[in-house]
Amino acid sequence: MSSMTTNQSINLNSICDGVVRILFLIHNKHPNWLKEQFRSYPWQDVNFQNKFKQKLQKKFNNIENHDDLINKLIDLLSYLVYPIFFKSFYFREFMHNAINYHFTNNHQQELDFYLAILLLDTENLYLDINSEKFLSTVCYYPIKLKFAFGNWRNLGKKDVEFYERGYELLHVPPGKNSADLKMISFGSSIWLNYPKAKEVLICSSDGDLNHLSTALQHHGLTVYKVSRRGDELIVLNSQTAQMQRFALSKITEYPSINQCFEEVKSLITSEQKRTGKIWIKLTRLIQMFKKKLNLNLSEVIEYYFPQQGIEEVLSDSKHGLVFHKPTSDSDVYLTVFTDKVDESIKEKEIVKIDSPVNLEIVLVRIIRKLIQESNQEYVPISQVASEYQKKYQVSITKTMEKLQLGKKFAQLIASYESLELKKQESVYYVGINY
After folding, report:
1. Is residue 4 a part of any domain in this protein?
2. CB-based burial, 206-242: b 16+ in 10 Å, e otherwise
3. E strands, 122-275, in order
4. In terms of domains, do 145 and 204 share one?
5. Is position 70 within any domain?
6. What is the pTM of this model?
7. Which CATH number do you get for residue 419?
8. Domains in the chain: how many in total?
9. Which domain holds residue 34?
10. CB 103 within 8 A of CB 21
11. Angle 241-247-248 (CA atoms, 0-180°, nearest 5)?
């Protein structure tokens, strides 16, 4: 690993600009890629950008070599965004620029002034809305101009559809290759007629448009060749030769990750009221999610968290769910804790604590109540045991013996993922694991 030269150190400012730019772009075009706590940040505000950049410069200033800097950049992005970002063109472009210190300044000004143009040969390639959304993720700049070429007298109602989707319709006369010739004629002067254009998507399965691609590249534009082979959309970046394949059969509109978890909570709450049970099986939740949204919950989770399984994601308490799996080969149970619990459910739970999962929810409620009353993050477990006996007229150890959970209360607390145990001197304290 080589040490950073003076020249490279000067370029630290450029790299920090690049970080701010990529976060600004994600916030604008793919806010769901940002982790929830960072979506409300004013990424578009210049003062905020400058302050954020100053913090980055301070954070990265003492890094001694380029390789370490790259690793720190990846760590930073992992903290701010979901894993789906790392599979995108944005990340590849960002890493290419970071490795080569090739970032331009004034990214907001660039986005305000520069744009991408889409040229579509409707006679041999059809783009639906979802395909078009996919293409928008390929481009660095927003697709602000869209031109559709075709003989509209022969294309039924497609002219109405494309017009409503914001396309400018360019009519071509009947005849073989008429659309190609019109696209070549129109496209070859894009650099002159649309000086703000930086990228062009040539959408056609016809190979006769290579000359247009070469001409546009000669004038400094990045060209994406978009074609279809069978059930795949193929995108070739003429500048980097990178090819992206997109399965048209797999195009699915997913809810945002926030919407997904809100839907999960709503389904759990509905099932709790219907059955009177606090804990809902994951298998049942998956069935309800599929029935209501016609989507597989596991696929939505994989979309946002490609490197994690559904159980791992749902067990993260930051999503507002409580996860319980008594043994490695048992069913998974989920519940939602709210300040207001339906009284019918609450009464049934008070009458009968007959399982480890029911005991856990009882303990969590007691601990929450004690924390709120004491205004502390942790309370002594002896206080929890006393409150339990006061409320249920039986000691916690007796309940544990009945449920065959051993006799050590601290060990039981430690086994629950929804709770956090810590020891100060000889006293055990417990808090909620948010």
Report:
1. no
2. beebeebbebbeeeebbbbbbbbeeeebebbbbeeee
3. 143-150, 168-171, 197-203, 222-229, 232-237, 243-247
4. yes
5. yes
6. 0.41
7. 3.30.420
8. 4
9. 12-100
10. yes
11. 120
228 in the same domain as 284? no
Q: What tokens does 101 get?
A: 């210190």
Per-residue pLDDT of the chain (434 residues; tens, 9 = 90+): 444 444 445 467 778 888 888 888 888 777 778 887 788 788 877 778 888 888 888 888 877 777 888 888 888 999 899 888 887 767 877 887 777 655 554 444 444 567 899 999 988 888 887 788 788 878 878 888 999 988 877 656 677 778 878 888 888 877 677 777 888 888 888 988 888 899 999 998 776 788 888 889 988 899 999 988 877 889 998 888 888 888 776 556 677 778 888 999 999 999 988 888 888 889 999 999 998 888 888 878 876 776 577 888 887 767 778 877 765 556 788 888 654 444 444 444 443 577 787 788 788 889 988 988 888 889 999 999 999 988 888 899 999 988 888 888 998 988 887 788 998 888 999 988 75
* Residue 396 burial (CB count, 10 A): 23
H or E stretch at 373 = helix 356-374
Residue 351 maps to a domain: no
SS3 content of the chain, % helix, strand, coil (to 5): 55, 15, 30
Position 109 in a domain: no
CATH code for position 214? 3.40.50.1010
